[in-house]
Amino acid sequence: MIYLTSAFSQHLAADELPSAVRTALGKPLRRAAPLTQLALLGALANLPAERRHLPTALLWQSTHGPRQETQAMLDELYAGGGEPMPFEFLATQPVLAAVQIQPFLPGLRSAMHFPLDTAGLANWSLLLALAGNWLAEGRYAQVLCAHLDSTADGAVGHWLALAGTRLETARACLLPTTANVPAAVPDTPDFPALVANWLNQPTAARLHLQSPDSPRLAVEFATL
After folding, report:
1. CATH number, domain containing residue 77
2. Fewest CB within a 10 Å sphere: which of 13, 54, 163, 190?
3. Structural domain of residue 89, as residue ranges?
4. What distance in Å separates the CA atoms of residue 103 and residue 122, rounded to the nearest whole number?
5. Is residue 150 part of a domain?
6. 108-115 and 206-211: which strand pairing?
7. Alpha-carbon dihedral of residues 63, 28, 21, 14, nearest 10 degrees?
8. Across residues 1-30, what is the average pLDDT?
9. What is the distance between the alpha carbons of residues 94 and 103, in angstroms, rounded to a whole number?
10. Is residue 12 predicted with pLDDT exceeding 70?
């Protein structure tokens, strides 16, 4: 069985992100893209120190992706500033965020980025299905699923942390369910916030998620 250990959301103004990282680490994370900083903050918030060495996978989706980083690099090229610095190019490759995260999350074994093409829509069903399969196979002890977006206006991170064993922090279990669930909640970026609200103010013992893009990957959350 798969267990939900954390449902977490974070909203930061653009100028708050570096200071939040500095507070979490005790030092700045130099030359790290905003998405990388946001991913690190969420990973540390979801995993206590004693679990950060365990085999971990990170699955994250993003609507905006590294647009800011890519635009900054293009602006420099068009301005005749010569070739971009290596760290500027690496910032445009979202999957490489794991490289800078791993020193603080030594158990991180795998990271995958899933770009989205429509604002307001997500694919949590896909992330949770993949995480569930990996945990059931025993490939990882825990999987972090996230939706991360960084724009000029600020940064937003939504997280679900899953484990393959029942921990003291487990709040619910996840079960695959049949398609066409009438009471399913929409698959939107802020789904973890809905989960957190459901856990804190349960109006029903179960919560269903179903994405129109992946109706066969419907998921049922059941309180413990």
Report:
1. 3.40.47.10
2. 13
3. 2-170
4. 29
5. yes
6. unpaired
7. -50
8. 90
9. 17
10. yes
Q: What's the pLDDT at 217? A: 85
Mapping DSSP onto H, E and C, the string for the chain reads CEEEEEEEEEEEEHHHHHHHHHHHHCCCCCCCCHHHHHHHHHHHHHCCHHHCCCCEEEEEEECCCCHHHHHHHHHHHHCCCCCCCHHHHHCCCHHHHHHHHCCCCCCEEEEEEEECCCCCCCCHHHHHHHHHHHHHHCCCCEEEEEEEEEECCEEEEEEEEEECCCCCCCCEEEEECCCCCCCCECCCCCHHHHHHHHHHCCCCCEEEEEECCEEEEEEEEEEC
Residue recorded with tokens 């970026």: 189
pLDDT band for position 183 (cuts 50, 70, 90): confident
Q: Which amino acid is at 103?
A: P
The number of folded domains in the chain is 1
Structure-block tokens of residue 17: 């992100």
Does residue 86 carry a pLDDT above 60? no
Q: Is residue 202 part of a domain?
A: no
Sign of CA dihedral 4, 6, 9, 14: negative
Residue 201, phi-psi category: left (phi > 0), alpha (psi -120 to 50), beta (remainder): beta
Asked whether residue 50 is assigned to any structural domain, the reply reads yes
Contact in structure between 79 and 62 (CB atoms under 8 Å): no
Joined tokens for residue 101: 């995260």
Number of other residues whose CB lies within 10 A of the CB of residue 34: 23
* 55: pLDDT strictly greater than 70: yes
- Is residue 29 a contact partner of residue 100, using CB atoms and an 8 Å limit? yes
